[in-house]
Amino acid sequence: MPPVLTLILSFLLFIALRVPIAFAIGLASIVTIFQLGIPLTSVVTQMFASINSFPLLAVPFFLLLGRLMNDGGITDRLLKFADASVGHIRGGLGHINVMVSMMFASLSGSGAADTASVGAVMIPAMKKAGYPAPFSVALTAASSVLGGIIPPSILMVIYGAFGNVSVGALFLGGIVPGLLVAASQMGYTYYVARKIGLRPEGSFSLCSMGRTGLVAMPPMILPIIILGGITTGVFTATEAAAIAVIIGLLLAMVFYRTIGIFALPKILSDSVIAYSLPMFAVASAGIMGWLIAYLGIARDVAEFITSVTDTRIGLMLMVGFFLLIVGTVLSPVTAVIIFLPIIQSIANSGGIDQVHMGLIVVLTLTLGLITPPYGICLLIATQIGEISMPRAFVAVLPMIAMVIAIIAAGVVWPALFLTLPWTLMPEAFGFR
Predict the structure, then answer these.
(1) SS (H, E, C) 167-189
(2) Best CA proximity match to 137, nearest among 388, 421, 410
(3) Is the pLDDT of residue 38 over 60?
(4) Could you tell me which residues come within 8 angstroms of residue 400 by beta carbon, excluding any fewer than 6 positions away?
(5) Is residue 56 classed as helix, strand or coil in its secondary structure?
(6) At what angle do helices 206-231 and 167-196 cross, to 10 degrees?
(7) Apex CA 382: angle with CA 378 and CA 383, to 5°?
(8) From CA 276, how far away is CA 35, in angstroms rounded?
(9) What does the DSSP 8-state code read for residue 91?
(10) Which of 29, 55, 201, 239 is the most buried (most CB within 10 A)?
(11) What 3-state DSSP class applies to 40?
(12) pLDDT tens-digit profile of 374-418?
């Protein structure tokens, strides 16, 4: 049996046997390596090489920052500011949901953390206010994908680390699509609120907005520090994450005084556990990604796709369609590491900028967080909202369609996503 077929069939077999995906990837790769007669020490070597990356150190720091923000009561302060800012508009609770998710994304970079923290408050509140349960769940899950788009994004860090692409340029490129996704979700929320007859609640108060904004302002400065430092070259993404954690600790322990010194050991240990799980998947995916390159699969797939179409738009749309399917069964992080050789080969064949391709890949794969069966954000939201996955998926379909439309717009008009990184980090594109 050809090694390529062995790799695919063994992976599918392990999945059918309900082996966790991270283990299924590693075991399928080991079976193929054994067939090829490659020393099994290559497994250890490739697993270590996959995680032996300085930029990857940003991931645990951002995970820890998200935990500090949540345990430190920062989420509650962001909720109050969002309520004062947009709560008076028709569909106010839905707008608050999206706005808080957008702000939380700029602090944690994790969609699952966003869903769990924001959803625990917003889903029950929206259901009580008269919003349909499926819509409340769908909006919470869909707005959580902003964690993978708006900087700092953990997925962008991993893409940049493994693809040798500027993380700062990816961060800057994620700002506009993130804002567009948030605006489209708020517009859809307004439409649903009108349709079901919900009236605006309360009135706008500049005094209330200023008061809550003053309290919420310190954590909202963090994204500016991170982006500003990276784009000006003062520090790397990893160093920015470490600095953000230090500031987060000062905010939670000194400024707000919501976390005591004795709570730190548990926060740190929980963050280590939260980091270890995706890193094992990264290590396993690294083996399969290496095999894909070793067997020449990346070259063959790139040649096949370029034989179908050689236009920039056609190639990017085909990659996007492929990743939409892949994202339903693999986590975004795993999918990036496994298929990155193929993606970058196609980009090189079509003369596509690697930052542009990276943004399209990240945007597309984040949809996997809300599409069954993998859709972890949708799963968390359904558990909070106490509804079935099929009902939630039907409700989230319009929001998925809006994100796909934004991705398509970014493919057709690159300047929509790339103007900011072109302007602020021209060196990432070879400009001077």
Answers:
(1) HHHHHHHHHHHHHHHHHHHHHHH
(2) 388
(3) yes
(4) 142, 367, 370, 371
(5) helix
(6) 150
(7) 120
(8) 30
(9) T
(10) 29
(11) coil
(12) 677 888 888 888 888 888 989 999 999 999 999 999 999 999 999
Residue type, 183: A
Q: Are 356 and 364 in contact (CB under 8 A)?
A: no
Helices (H), 197-261: 206-231, 237-250
Helices (H), 252-388: 264-294, 297-308, 312-326, 332-350, 354-366, 376-385
Using 50, 70 and 90 to split pLDDT, how confident is the model at 430? low
* Residues sharing a CB contact under 8 Å with residue 264, sequence separation 6 or more, in sequence order: none
352, two tokens: 């596509």
Q: What is the pLDDT of residue 176?
A: 94
Structure tokens at 393: 């998926």
Q: Is the pLDDT of residue 431 over 60?
A: no
Token pair recorded at residue 86:
């947009």
Backbone angles phi, psi at 154, to 5 degrees: -60, -40
| 3-class state of residue 42 by DSSP | helix
The secondary structure of residue 198, as a DSSP letter, is P
What does the pLDDT look like over 159-215, one tens digit per residue? 988 888 988 899 999 999 999 999 999 999 999 988 888 777 767 778 888 888 888
Residue 384, pLDDT score: 86
Between the two ends of the chain, the Cα-to-Cα distance in Å is 51
pTM of this structure: 0.83
Distance CA 298, CA 345 (A): 7
The share of the chain scoring above pLDDT 90, in percent, equals: 20
Q: 226: closest CA among 235, 216, 218?
A: 235
Q: For residue 283, what are the contacts with CB-CB under 8 A and spacing of at least 6? A: 26, 47, 48, 50, 51
pLDDT in tens, 209-266: 888 888 878 777 777 787 778 777 788 878 888 888 888 888 888 888 888 888 888 8
Radius of gyration for the alpha carbons in the chain, expressed in angstroms and rounded: 22
pLDDT at residue 137, rounded to an integer: 92
- Burial label for 3, CB within 10 Å (0-12, 13-18, 19+), is middle
Residue in this structure with the two tokens 């009236």, named with its chain if needed: 199
CA distance 267 to 262: 10
Quick one: which of 383, 417, 287, 418 has its CA closest to 341? 287
